[in-house]
Amino acid sequence: MAEWNKPLPTVSGETKPYWDSCRQGQLVIQKCDSCGEYQFYPRGICANCWSNDIKWHKASGKGTVWTFTVTYQNRTPGFAEDVPYVLALVELEEGVRMFTNIVECEPRDVKIGMGVEVTFVRANDQISIPYFKPAA
Amino acid sequence: MVDLKHGAAIVGIHEHVTRYAPDKSELQIQGESVIKALADAGLTKKDVEGLFTASSSIRNSGMNLADYLNMYPKYVDNTTVGGGSFEFHLSHALTAIVAGRINCAVITYSSLARSGGVSVGTGGVARFGHPRLDPSPDSFEELYGLTTVGLYAMIAQRHMHLYGTTSEQLAEIAVAIRKHASMNPEAMFRDPITVEAVVNARVISSPLHLLDCCLISDGGGALVVASPELARNCRQRPVWVLGVGEALAHQGAGQRDLIYIAAKQSHEPAFAMAGVTHQDIDMAMIYDSFTITVLETLEDLGFCKKGEGGDFVSGGRLQVGGELPINTDGGGLSSNHPGMRGIFLLLEATRQLRHQFEGTPRQVENCQVALCHGTGGALGSRHSGGTVILGRD
After folding, report:
1. A120 touches chain B (CB under 8 A)
2. A105, A88 contact by CB (below 8 A)
3. CATH-assigned architecture of domain B9-116+214-392
4. What do you get for the CA distance between the two ends of chain B, in Å?
5. I need a labelling partner for B282 at 20 to 30 A (CA). Which of A3, A53, B180, B338 fits?
6. Chain B contact for A44, CB < 8 A?
7. B117 in contact with A at a CB cutoff of 8 Å?
8. CB-hemisphere CA count at 13 Å for B29?
9. Domain boundaries in chain A?
10. ipTM of the shown complex
11. Which value, to the nearest 10 degrees, does the dihedral of the CA atoms of residues B58, B61, B65, B67 take?
């Protein structure tokens, strides 16, 4: 397997469960037991009510494209050779939105509102990165 | 709240004419700008009590600037919220002056983005030279190849989806601002362009084309803000701060609808403080990092309803002689954009309110009240919005 040349996430205490789960092929998100709100990105407190009562939940991994752009120019190594690629905000079924790339399809076929599902790409032994592809 | 209206005035300005200055340092450009802005006001170094600056490249920017200028300010503010930082600075200077902490402040900025080869909009992670991604939010964003233009483009895409806005309508903004640049001898790009030229330019990040994007230049400038008492004794006619409002916007833990930008929050306090309505605004300086920035800002400032921006920006409304002339200096799309352009909004609004271009096509006729709105950061993720309303004496 070719060496991963895109930027890699930095894993911290508050985000380790997310990346551990991604490595096992499962997208997880946080929900607050006090106020009931989901949140993304993961953090050590509930961003809504500031409680500590946050729990990790398995996400369905399904969502829709909230918006996207086909990127033709990026100087960052790893992306410079990938253009054109699709940068998107996906709204998960649970209601929160996350940045991602839409993969395994032609950029011209991506539309707002299209159904997508998570797929993981292994970057190294520690990190697998969640992307989204058109729903089956 | 204490009444802040007319609590301070812009009394001196200077825009550094350079668009390319590989032989100067950023601090030198700031120093030269501060000196000329003070001369414009008829004030001197010893009058300055407050120092306001922001930089994306100079660490501890206020401290380093005070050192460079050999000044000992008793009020320092380095608020850095991207391109709109200087609208925040003016807001803070107003408050400090009304509170009696200081009588006179300078606000200054410079950048060598062009001669330094900085890809302001398309550098991705490389634009900041990050050695590694921060745990949050970078590790959930930058690993997908975000670019600044991409974050704005995503909002443009959604706007088109929801409201039927077209590339041609966005292009109208670039065309109007280029027309204004043609009247500014200092502007980088002065040849008029057409809607067809904009929509036929190469796509940088869909749906935004090359000419939907600001240029990259070097540059800088400064303004002098004074208490009413001091302002009355300055060389120039004061330009009064009538109202200010500040806001931040972000993903809201994944739940905010970012089709609504920070201007939605910042404009109401500014209009309320100034006691004016949208009909009173004779011209506006709207941060134009990209054409979509202007359209979104005009909507969320309340100049038209959400979704109607495409029609609003069409038909010459934004050109001098139209209903709401904007960016009469040629803006970031055509005049200069060193990376954080908000200071230039205040400088051009001041020139218009001084009637500095009287007798030329650039002057907005009988300009009495101007609005500036600075946006910093990126519409699709985190950004700031600073609204400032200025008035002629």
Report:
1. no
2. no
3. 3-Layer(aba) Sandwich (3.40)
4. 24
5. B338
6. no
7. no
8. 26
9. 16-134
10. 0.97
11. -100
Both structure tokens of B388? 């400032």
Taking CB atoms and an 8 Å limit, are B127 and A100 in contact across chains? Answer: no
DSSP 8-state symbol, B144: G
pLDDT digits (tens, 9 = 90+) for A32-54: 999 999 999 999 999 999 999 99
Identify residue B27 by its one-letter amino acid code. Answer: L
CB < 8 Å to B125, chain A: 7, 76
Give kind and range of the element (H or E) at residue B12. strand B9-15
Q: Is A70 on the interface with B (CB under 8 A)?
A: yes
pLDDT of residue B160: 98
A134, amino acid identity: P
What is the arithmetic mean of pLDDT over A60-84? Answer: 95
Name chain A contacts of B126, Cβ cutoff 8 Å. Answer: 75-77
Per-residue confidence band for B204, with pLDDT thresholds at 50, 70 and 90:
very high
| Residue range B155-174: mean pLDDT, rounded | 98
**Cβ contact (<8 Å) for A87 and B144?**
yes
Of the partner residues B126, B134, B145, the one whose CB lies closest to the CB of residue A71: B145
pLDDT tens profile B12-34: 999 999 999 999 999 999 999 99
Give the residue extent of every domain in chain B: 9-116+214-392
Q: Are residues B134 and A10, on separate chains, in Cβ contact within 8 Å? A: yes
For A:17-36, CB contacts with B below 8 A are none
What are the structure tokens assigned to B378, written together?
Answer: 């990126």
Q: Report pLDDT for B336.
A: 96
A114 touches chain B (CB under 8 A): no
A41 and chain B in contact, CB less than 8 A: yes
Residue B69 has phi, psi (to 5 degrees) of -90, 0
Query: Cα distance from A132 to chain B (closest Cα, Å)?
Result: 11
